[in-house]
Design brief:
Elements: E1 6-7, E2 13-14, H1 17-21, E3 29-33, H2 37-43, E4 49-52, H3 56-59, H4 71-84, E5 89-93, H5 103-117, E6 121-125, H6 131-139, E7 144-149, H7 155-158, H8 171-184, E8 188-192, H9 196-205, E9 210-213, E10 221-224, H10 226-229, H11 246-263, H12 283-293
Parallel strand pairs: 3-4, 3-10, 4-5, 5-6, 6-7, 7-8, 8-9, 9-10
Antiparallel strand pairs: 1-2
The structure holds 3-methyl-2-oxobutanoic acid.
3-methyl-2-oxobutanoic acid is lined by residues 33, 51, 53-55, 93, 147, 190, 192, 213, 223, 225.
């Protein structure tokens, strides 16, 4: 770890954007998306950075795409993740419409995200069209992670969540995107849904780390949407490996809970507050006794 770390909560060293950049060629970078404090606290033990991705619009809020996500929503989740994570760098996605208009608008909104969430960097989508904006933000103190290849905020132009660079004629433009964001000062770049040979080529060509999602093991690091890799998402892309089956565990636990409530076996006495016993007995003691003596009412259900 470089000397650029700053203290996080409880004296932990919080990684910063240059620490992530310095891992290129040294060790693989591990990251996940995160949207809430408690899962951020768990992922923090294993990840170099946590991305508060605008995928939260689809994963947490049931939108069909990331387009409806607002700055306020990103800030709300960003604050929660920063509270949960102590060591990992927290990167917050700039949502659609908050940065494309001009470098000045991007700066105003990115500065708001950084001030209100206390995150360490922002991410924005786009290659050459974002070069000027990335330079503007970095020059003014905002570390930027870029995102090229499949850029989900442009879904209405692209026409679907399609892998990029599967034909060699597409390579030149995507490679140029990577070079431009690196030259503009981005500290890392997400490569989403990019064919393996192109991911390898880009990773070798640029000086900043490539973070792959559906872009092969050739990248300098990997990111997945946490809910996807935990087995909590109803549909997952080809590139996701489910490392857990949390959806099944939740289904089982909620089914068990519902059954016990219907049978009146939950809550049991250990989950129930009795009255405080007062010296010489009294209403409280009698209430406790009568509660214990009361037979559970019969129900017509299972
Ligand atoms: O929003 C998100 O989760 C992302 C990842 C796919 C990198 O941008």
């Amino acid at each position: 770890m470089s000397s650029q770390s700053t203290p996080g909560a409880a004296g932990q060293k919080r990684l910063m954007a240059p620490d992530i950049a310095a891992k290129k060629g040294v060790e693989p970078i591990v990251s996940l998306t995160s949207y809430h404090a408690h899962t951020a606290a768990i992922a923090d033990k294993y990840c170099d950075f946590l991305l508060v991705g605008d995928s939260l619009g689809m994963v947490m809020h049931g939108f069909e795409t990331t387009v409806p996500v607002t700055l306020d929503l990103m800030i709300m989740h960003g604050k929660a993740v920063v509270r949960g994570a102590r060591r990992a760098l927290v990167v917050v996605d700039m949502p659609f419409g908050s940065y494309e208009e001009s470098p000045e608008v991007a700066f105003r909104n990115a500065a708001r995200v950084m001030k209100e969430t206390d995150c360490g960097a922002v991410k924005l989508e786009g290659g050459r069209r974002m070069g000027e904006t990335i330079r503007y933000l970095v020059d003014r103190g905002i570390p930027v992670m870029a995102h090229i290849g499949l850029t989900p905020q442009s879904i209405n132009v692209i026409g679907g969540f399609k892998a990029q660079g599967r034909e060699e004629v597409q390579w030149g433009a995507i490679e140029e995107d990577a070079r431009i964001v690196a030259d503009a000062g981005a500290f890392a770049v997400v490569l989403e849904a990019i064919a393996e040979p192109l991911a390898r080529r880009i990773t070798q060509a640029i000086a900043i780390p490539t973070i792959g999602i559906g872009a092969s093991a050739e990248c300098d690091g990997q990111i997945l949407v946490m809910e996807d890799m935990l087995g909590l998402s109803p549909r997952v892309p080809k590139f996701v490996k489910e490392f857990g089956r949390i959806g099944e565990s939740i289904d089982k636990a909620i089914g068990w809970y519902a059954e016990e409530v219907r049978k009146r076996s939950f809550p049991a006495s250990q989950h129930t507050y009795a009255m405080k016993t007062v010296a010489g007995g009294g209403e409280g003691a009698r209430a406790n006794k009568s509660a214990r003596d009361t037979k559970k009412p019969k129900t017509g259900s299972t």
